[in-house]
Each structure stands twice: as structure tokens, then as C-alpha cells.
Amino acid sequence: MSERRQTRGEHQKALAQKNKKKAPKATKSSTKVWLKRIVLTILIIGIVGLVGGAGVFAYYASTAPELDEDLLKDPVSSEFYDKNGEIFATIGAENRKYVKYEDIPEDMINAILATEDVRFFKHHGMDFYRLGGAILANFRDGFGAQGASTLTQQVVKNSFLQNEKKLKRKAQEAWLAFQLERKYSKEEIFEMYFNKMLMSGRIYGFGTAAQYFYGKELKDLSLDEEALLAGLVQRPNAYNPLKNPELAEKRRNTVLGLMYQHGKITKAEMEEAKKVDVQAGLSDDATRQSFAGSKYDAFLDIVINELEKNGDGSAMAEGIKVYTTLDPNAQQIVENIMNDDSNFPTEKIESGVAVVDTKTGQIQAVGGGRNYGNRTFNYADDLKINHPGSTMKPLLDYGPAIEYLKWSTGKTLVDDPMKYTDTNQTITNWDGKYLGAMTVRKALYASRNVPAVKTFKEVGADKAKEFIGRLGIEAENAYETDAIGGGDITMSPIQMAASYAAFGNNGVYTDPYSITKIVYRDGKSSKDYTPKPTVAMEDYTAYMVTDMLRDVVSNKPDASGTAANVSGLDIAGKTGTTNYSKDEFNKYNLPDTSVPDSWFAGYTTNYSIAIWSGYEKRSDPITTWDERRLPQHLFKNIMKDLSANIETARFKKPSSVVEATIEVGSSPLKLASDYTPSELRQTELFVRGTEPTEVSNEYEAPELSTPYNVSASLDLAGQSINIGWEHDAILDPETDEPMATTFEVSATREGGETVVLGTTDKKDLTVSNTLEDGNYTISVVAIVDGTRSEPGTTSFEISSMPDEDLGTEDPDNPDIEQPTPPDQGNGEDNGNNNGNGNNGNNGNNNGGNNGNNGNNGNTGNGTGNNGNDAGSQPPVTPTDPVVPNQENDSEQ
């Protein structure tokens, strides 16, 4: 049977099916081709990258510095410059105890290796296992998130390279590490590391650290002490057990855990070492001070802390230049005063001092303590847990009240018994008294507690906290107890000085800083440390607070900071003391007068200074006023010496502030009236636009009697005016004694102006005659406490005699006096009762001419009497008659 041929349709169908089966094979083949291309491309890129990377690595390696044995074995010195660009400290290999490898205890070696480089004796300078882990961390958390440096690399970095996470440095570090491993043995490299690492502050090398922290040789260290030293290298200042025991303990326990993990110690040894108090066995101050320090140790501590804060704590080991804000003159003044025992009332009382530039926030000088030396606790910076007392009042209470509520300095507050909200605890004042109504100004300068808490409550905790936050003071919460400086908020003298400086700098605040910049070893790379100033408050707030704080150092009654005043300087400041709790009084068996802390913060336009005083142990109290006032006395001495040879400008009132004389106690505030008693008249400050316009009508004019029996006369030569009067004084209702009265005397010319002749507290007044001829009204007004009486008056004439009236004697016709009978003389003089007083006297002297001269006047009873006295004199011998002078005859 022959095979049937496919029809045309069957053939096409079979062909289509065949093509359909072949299609997947073609797709699969195409995918393989693309995969090969991708792999090939990646391979080519990798090869190119490898070649390029190798080229870059080779280039960077070729530019790496040569190995220098001296640099490898000794720390690289860092230099510190003052504000004038002069070196004041060099820190490096000074006073370092060098230890040979064979003298290092095995446990000390194991602690370092377990912590820093457990594969040290197996790698050749680079640990690729750790490197892989670091690369993964950098991909996950960003470049530079984790390092993989071996001990060899750390030696290289601290000997030749600057502290930066750049590809060039990493390449050079790796190359030099390989070179170092080829040239030196592992033991030699470990010895380099052991002796050159920065351990804390200015302490280099583990051998030096053992003596500094424990006063021991390395061989005498216990396991827990070895672990602590091994952990310091990572963050030398942060893990310092003297300053940060909690962090130090955590780090020490981490090292012990790593030692156990890597089989260097047993679990029992680890747990036993962890139980030891991290501060047990630490050396005393005397031991630590035996290590040579810098010229200005206290200030250098601040600089080192700032390097640590900015992530450059270990940079000193790499040879940097640090440019600081140190004013060597100011620092020397502070140290001279702090080291003079005669400035302190007791042997053991301590103080911390911070001097900050008011305008810039630069730390000019610090006093870390008496005879500071190379100590560990710096009272200027490390004192951060002690309460500030009443120095908080301008910061947390009155500053915010002016800023947000636009209070006047004359606003009325009442100092009366009060309890903290929702408690039975009564708020008391330092003297146990309540003074009633007073101005904000007095409440601040007299440091009254109740008004401060009332002010804080009106401002509100949130606003108050916001205000101090702009002054660099960190606070999670603000409570009523913080209003008087006894709550949760604490600060160091440095922070307090910087915060107060904003008041003296028109409201502009700058974080306090001791470093302007650092320059790395290459001399080109640098890092700027200068913070930017910010506006913390309105200029009216800054000035009004400053003006009130001026009164703190004034001689006003109740002023709390009088002892801090420096004559001739415009100073503002605030005192502060803190209190013990009731439990502490019982626990320490303290006298009732005890306080734990005393503060003073004050400023001029140049310097802001904050000072704390107290004792190292809280159980040792301040009990005397000499101890309490110590910060004021130190402030005065320091500020006086600092300002001796420089110009200190006064605080300038801004245009946003106006003055008004108010009646104290009025609410709302009103302007004082003419009748407001002087003791209630006070000029206070207001934010422009908030000053009062209504005048108080609380007081009416007192009923003052009008002066009476007012009289006035010229002296013999007409050169002065004698004025007299009578007056009935007002009696003080409290004492029934006459009230102090002054009298204002004036003269008003007929048809002319009024001239004040003078004031007096007597009932007569003699003044020079400077009045022109004419008729005058003499007025006398009585004044008591600003209240004026109606004037008592009298009429008065000024008339001068022309020169021609005086006449001249004719030698050919001499005047001859005529005898005058006594009764005739009396008649003439009686006629003078209405004559001018001075002319009447002249008439008496001239005998017969008296009567004629007396007839010239129309007033003057007193002079007429004088005429009687003259007329009663015995008659003179008759002489020849004289021809009357024609001019005189016409005058008569």
C-alpha cells in the first residue's frame, strides 16, 4: 500500500507545529547569549577597575612618607596656640614612661589584642577578615561607618598620617603597614603601639597611664585595671574613670567580655573582675599632680574636652595645631587670684571660675580650682550637677516675662506666703520674711523667692523652657522649683557665663567655645570650630534685665550683690545660693544656716564671669556669710584686674525701651501725680508702646499753709536783697513732728518775667541784687514732698540813684551843717516813716540832710524808726549856712 501524501493543508499545519516547538529553543539560546555578555562586561569592568584601582593604589603608595623610627616610637606632639597666635602648650612625649615589650604583663597584652586586634600575630599588617566586615558595614551604614585598622595601621596613622577617612590615607596606611611589618618584628610594633597611644588628656602610653590612674607599675595592675586601660584607647577622654565612671565601667566590662570570648580569661575571672568598683584603687590628686602639666592646665582641659565633643579626641596623637581663644593675661589674673589662699575664708573651700567674652562667647580664661595643677575635676566645666540657685531667676523667670508678656520693670508683685502648686510645701525667702507689694525690679535685686515663682507661673513652663533653650541651657522639663534654681536644671560656670553674656550683648547668644580651628599635620587641612551667634531675645528684654541686675550690685537697701561692685564699671549681676533638703539636714547633722552652693554671675560689655563656691563633698556645708559672699569677692577682684587697662563701655538703652515715672504699687501701673509721695515715685522701664498714660489720683494735694509776713529790703549798699517770712509747718501724722519743708522764693517784675531767687529750708533768704530798677512782687512758696502751697507775697521796689544826684563839694563854698534841735530832728525823722529805708539811714548819717532825704520815699516804716534814733542824738555846733545845691533842691 503506497504512502499517502500530505495534503497542502496538512503540510502547512505540520510545519507550523514544527516551528512552534523550535521557538523555545531559540529564546533559551538568546538568554544564554545575554548572560554571557553581561558576565563578560562585568569581568571587563572588574579588570579595568582592578587595574585602575591598582594604579591609584600604586600612585598613592608612591606618595606615602618614609618610615621614621623616631616618629614610630614617640608620640607626635600637638601644639596649642593662644588668641594672640603664641604657643602656650605642646603635648607629646613629655613625661612619658617608655616600657619595653618584655616588661609588659601577659594579661595586659591579651586585653589589648582582644579589644583592638585579636589576629595581630597572624596578619601582615592588614586583617582582611576584619576588612570584609568593615566593608559590609560601610555599604550598610555609609562610608566611614566602621574601620578595620590593625595595631600596625594605628601605629602608622598616629606616626605619619592625618586623621581623615579618605581613600588616599587608607591606601598609604595599608602600604606603610606592609612596609612596617617587613622591617620590624611583631613585638617591636606592639611596643611602638603600647608606648605612643593617647590614653587621656595629655597622658601617652600604657605605662604612664598605669602610674597616672593607679599609681602603680604595670606588673602590679589587677585584671580589671588592665581591662580599663585597654579600653581607653578608643575614646581616651570619654572613658576616663575619674570623670565618667559609668562610661568607663561599661567599656571595661566590654573589654573583659572580649577577653573571655577569645579565650584569654575564664568566665569566672571575667565575672569577678566586672564586680570591682571602677573607681576603686584610683590614685589621689597628689599622685596625678606629680605629672608635669602645661602652663595653663585648667584651660587646656577645656580645650581637650571640646576636641572630644567634636569627634577629635584622638587627634592630638596625630600632631595637630589647635588655635584657641585663651587670653593669657586673663588666665594669669584668674590663676593668681585662685592660687592666693588669702582670698579664701577657709582652707578647703573650692571655687570654679569662667571668663567669657560678652560679645563673642569665647572662653578667655578659667579657674578649675585652687592650685589646680594636673587635676581631673575642673570646677569651671565639670561642675554640671549642682543647682544654680537664684542665678536662674533672670534666665527662667524675669527674662521670659519681659520677652513674652512685655512686663515693665515697675510691675507690681506681692511677696506673701505661698505654696508650690498641689503641695503643702511653703515657699520661703532667705530671711524667712515676706515684704508685701513690690516692683519686679526690687523682687529681682532683693532676690525674693515668692515673686519669682509667681512670675514663672504667669509665663508658663513651656515658654520659660523655650527661652533658656535659646541660651544654650538644655532642660527636659521646667518646674516651679526651677524658678528659684532648686529643680532639675543645672549648668556649669562656663555655660552660666555664656548665658548671662547674651543679656550684655543686646540679646545675641553664642555657645561658649575655646577653639577657633584645628590644623592637621599637612598644614593645609583644617576644621573650623567657631559657632555662629543667634538672636536669643529681643534687645528690650536684654537691656531691661540688665538694668535691673545693675541694682543687684548697687548700694540700695536689700541689694544682694553689693560686695561684687567695682567702682567706675557698669556692672550687672546676680547672686545665688542653694539649699539642703530636710533629709540632708538630718543625715549630715547640719546647722540651720547651712547651704551647699554659692554663686555669682555678672558682666560688663567686655566680660561675663560666673563663679561657683562650695566644698568637694556635699556633706561639708557653707555656714558663714564670708563663705557665701566668696563668689562676689572673687568676681570683684577678677573683674577689676581684667578691666584695669581697657575701656569698658556702658550698656546702651535701645530705642525699643522707654522710661516713665510711675506710682509704685498701682495696678495697672499709672503715672505718678504731682501729689504722689516721693518714696512712691519711681522711674521704670517699659517696652515702647506699653508705657502707661493715665495719671494716678490716689493722692490729693496736702493742705499746706501759705507763708505770711513776707518782707523784703535792700542792704546798706543796695548790693543784696534780704527776704523774710513766717510759716506754719505740717505735722507728720505718724511721728507728730514737723515735716521737712523747703521754700522757693521768686521775684516778678511788674509787667515782666518771674525770676527764681533761690530755695531754702529756712525762713529767710539773702540773695545778690541782680534785678533791674522797677516794682516787684516777692513770692514765697512752701513745698512738702513735691506739693506746693499758695504763694505768700509782698511788694518791693528797686530804685538806684543817678551819679549826678551825689553832687560834688565846691571848695569856694563849703557846706556848713546847721544845728538841729532834738525835737526838730524827731519831726524830720518821723516824716521819714514813709521814706525809703536806705535813704533814711543815709539821712541819719548826714544830720540835717536826713529829713530831706527821708522825704524822697513813700514806704519803709523801719527806716523811719532809724530816723528817730538819729534825731535823738545831741545837737552839733552851729556853722555858717550853706547855699543849697540846686540839683539837690530840685530832687527834694
Automatic annotation (TrEMBL):
Composition bias type Basic and acidic residues, residue spans: 1-13
Protein family: In the C-terminal section; belongs to the transpeptidase family. In the N-terminal section; belongs to the glycosyltransferase 51 family.
PROSITE patterns referenced in this protein's UniProt entry, alphabetically: FN3
Annotated region described as Disordered, given as residue ranges: 1-28, 788-892
Species per Swiss-Prot/TrEMBL record: Lysinibacillus mangiferihumi
Record's compositionally biased regions (Acidic residues): 802-815
Record-linked InterPro entries: Beta-lactam/transpept-like, FN3_dom, Glyco_trans_51, Glycosyltr_51/Transpeptidase, Lysozyme-like_dom_sf, PBP_transglycosylase, PCN-bd_Tpept
Keyword Transferase: yes
TM spans (from-to): 38-61
Keywords, sorted A to Z: Carboxypeptidase, Cell shape, Cell wall biogenesis/degradation, Glycosyltransferase, Hydrolase, Membrane, Multifunctional enzyme, Peptidoglycan synthesis, Protease, Transferase, Transmembrane, Transmembrane helix
GO molecular function: penicillin binding; peptidoglycan glycosyltransferase activity; serine-type D-Ala-D-Ala carboxypeptidase activity
Any one GO CC term of the record: outer membrane-bounded periplasmic space
Chain intervals with Low complexity compositional bias: 825-836
Domain Fibronectin type-III: 706-803
Protein name stated in the entry: PBP1A family penicillin-binding protein
UniProt cross-references to NCBIfam families, sorted A to Z: PBP_1a_fam
Catalytic activity reported: Preferential cleavage: (Ac)2-L-Lys-D-Ala-|-D-Ala. Also transpeptidation of peptidyl-alanyl moieties that are N-acyl substituents of D-alanine; [GlcNAc-(1->4)-Mur2Ac(oyl-L-Ala-gamma-D-Glu-L-Lys-D-Ala-D-Ala)](n)-di-trans,octa-cis-undecaprenyl diphosphate + beta-D-GlcNAc-(1->4)-Mur2Ac(oyl-L-Ala-gamma-D-Glu-L-Lys-D-Ala-D-Ala)-di-trans,octa-cis-undecaprenyl diphosphate = [GlcNAc-(1->4)-Mur2Ac(oyl-L-Ala-gamma-D-Glu-L-Lys-D-Ala-D-Ala)](n+1)-di-trans,octa-cis-undecaprenyl diphosphate + di-trans,octa-cis-undecaprenyl diphosphate + H(+)
Matching Gene3D superfamilies: Biosynthetic peptidoglycan transglycosylase-like, DD-peptidase/beta-lactamase superfamily
One Pfam family here: Transpeptidase
GO biological process annotation, one example: proteolysis
Ranges of biased composition (kind: Gly residues): 837-851
